[in-house]
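hey so u asked for the seq, here:
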Amino acid sequence: MRRISRITVAGAATASLALALSACGGTSTSSGSSESKGDKGLAIAYDVGGKGDQSFNDAAYAGLEQAKKQFGYETADVEPTDGETDADKEQRLVSLAKQGYNPVVGVGYAYAAALKGAAEKYPDTTFGIVDDATIEADNVADLVFSEEEASYLAGVAAAKATKTKTVGFVGGVDIPLIHKFEAGYKQGVKDTDPKVKVIPQYLTQTAEEGGFSSPDKGKSAAEGQIEKKADVVYAAAGLSGQGVIEAAAANKVWAIGVDSDQYKQEALAKYKGSILTSAMKDVAKAVFNLAKSVEDGKPATGIVKGDLKTGEVSLSNSNPKFADDAELQEAIETAKEKIISGEIKVKSS
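ran it, structure tokens below
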């Protein structure tokens, strides 16, 4: 059952949406098979790096595609622009809500201020934000994850795979969210083999400097770590992580991907033999589930958290060399069970 508030506005402001979005980021829309409903569904606004990052944003798009297929409604996805302000982001979200899309999801913590403002203006629209838990509103769902738990398992894998007893971590931006990845990874490494050294590096202090969107920066950082004997490098850096994977492949060492199963990403196919595993968080599932809650007439609100127990964070098993390593798999499964049971408390900072 769709919400009446969305039906009543679905036909409004078509021209103004196009004008507004052309000023603050590109958009694409697509219709399902049930246009006769006169109703619009899920819309997402991408984080830096945009669609095609083979990681975080593409996972959100996969959730949108699933919702479009299952519910047969019109969807929209909107690109960010360079140097945009919170006001630009808010205008983008407001435009989508005004057009009748519901829910409207901001992909990434950078949307926090903008989404809060948009949600206040459109209280009958459900909004979602990925990777932020600061917004408390009756019509906002904070879609967050225990990234440190998947990162712990990545640390177990790295400690088991290293031959040099040195592994690397490349964080895109030096912020608390990425500190969770580093903390879990370091703990997993040290709990598995205290003799293994972890070399951490952050690409930038702010997202505006390109920490999540610069493969060249990721490649350079990984090359520096490999020169220091790191033979496994884990990247939590969005699009920049592609450069880390490229450097690992060129130097015949292991890379660990993030957010999506990067072994399966078409753009990374020529490097996949060097991708040991990926520490995944199921952004697609979180985005789809929010759309489904609205479709069912019971919109999710508040903090909605995914972790190892719910299956929304995990390690990928696509690389046969990883999946067929019985000793490695046993170590990871043991760690996973201990995290879920509470025997292992994973640090988030």
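Residues 176-192 form the longest helix (17 residues). The two ends are 42 Å apart (CA to CA).
lmk if thats what u needed
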